[in-house]
Amino acid sequence: MEQVPSEERPTPGTAGRPETPGDDHDPTTRQLRLFLTLARELHFGRAAQRLYMTQPSLSRQIRLLENRLGVPLVDRTSRSVRLTEAGRTLLPEAENVLTAMSRLRSRAAEQSRRVRGRLVLGFVAGESAMPYTHAILDELTRRHPAVSVELRLLTFGDQFERLADDDVDAALLRPPLPPPLRTMTLAVEPRVACLPSSDPLADPAVGRPLTLTDLAEHRMVDMPASVSRTWWDDWTVNPRPDGTPVQYGPVVTDIEGLLTEVARGRAISFLPEAARRLYPRPGIHYVHVTDAPMSSAALAWLPGRHERPTVAALLDAARAVAPPANTPL
């Protein structure tokens, strides 16, 4: 049997009576939550138990809510509790208010977590045009619109130095990368041979992919001394599988220089498959090489750099859009 303490029982004519001057007359979200729980249970004892409060305290809050709204919400008797007509009418409105408040708090928390500041993202060659780069930057902007991103072109010769010197916060590079760089793989694709159109092997009439053996007598474009030899030997597949060393030709520092030297017929190079789309140039032809190693693209940063809010935000965005199989190297 529902027992309502005498001091909590409604007094005729009290609903809608003005409260003590200076009191806030607007219902609180807590009072609305208590009302919703009581409306579900229709029993002060059970509702109070669910709310981890005493029955008199719950009854007092419901009475306060009724006074603030100016209408009775529940009919109380010693045997039952039921919603009044006003209670039934206002119940969905109370639910809407609580839903809106929850959404407001969620949006406020989201705003508080958003990062602000400037991020300098370096890139080599055509990495800024790749789909994964656009996906990462779009995700970063969606999550943290107050982060401004500057894209900075790096050369083959200074890509690692500018990252180490903190000229850029992170960079889109092509492994293998020297320690102590940390990397996250973004994509993997085949390598192609970049040949001058005048080369007999570039003739479409050949009609077949090439092998490293086919290219054994070709000179490869070389890099300046500032470039990691391990990195460039990997790209040129030096030495070849049979132990033959690669013969090097002219030195270049960036992709445009590389393409120019190839088009002039002075050397060849290996490039990622995406070069077909990114660098269609007069005098150049791309041919698939069946036994060349695959090429990977990576987001690179120095240890400790991930503690910067902008870099952490970039890494989170990259993880969100990178394929599940792409894990840190």
Cα shape: rod-shaped
Q: What is the name of the CATH superfamily of the largest domain? A: Winged helix-like DNA-binding domain superfamily/Winged helix DNA-binding domain
Along the chain, the helix and strand elements come as HHHEEHEHEHEEEEHEHEHEEH
Helix proportion range = 25-40%
The figure for the number of domains is 3
**CATH top level class name of the largest domain:** Mainly Alpha
- Strand composition percent: 15-25%
> Termini separation (Å)?
68 Å
* Structural category: alpha/beta
Tally of DSSP helical segments: 10
The CATH architecture term of the largest domain is Orthogonal Bundle
Low-confidence stretches: 1-22
Computed CA radius of gyration, to the nearest angstrom: 35 Å
Largest sheet: 5 strands, mixed
Across the major sheet, the strand order is: 4-3-5-12-6
CATH topology of the largest domain: Arc Repressor Mutant, subunit A
Query: Multimeric state of these chains?
Result: single chain
